[in-house]
Design goal:
Helix content is 83%, strand content 0%. It contains four helices and no strands.
Length: 86
């Protein structure tokens, strides 16, 4: 069982992975540059815009919920109603 999940197995896996990473790491800057150069910048910009719209919609929903909760609490305090559970 120790050979499957113990520190010995971890050490063996790290040795194998280290050999693979030693070949991959020097190539990463070139591969990243190629990907960024050939990737359509319009697609990335459209994706950013879509994410911004989605986030602003969630922010508006959160603000509306907070405003509603504050309005209920203010009305409760204004009319002197006891809080639930008291």
């Amino acid at each position: 069982m120790q050979e499957q999940v113990g520190f010995k197995r971890l050490e063996e896996e790290l040795k194998v992975e280290a050999a693979q990473w030693s070949h991959l790491l020097p190539q990463l800057p070139r591969l990243l540059h190629q990907r960024l150069r050939h990737h359509a910048p319009g697609r990335a910009l459209a994706e950013l815009r879509r994410l911004r719209r989605r986030r602003s919609g969630a922010t508006a929903c959160c603000c509306a919920s907070l405003a509603g909760a504050l309005a209920i609490m203010a009305a409760w305090a204004f009319f002197g109603m006891p809080l639930p559970g008291r």
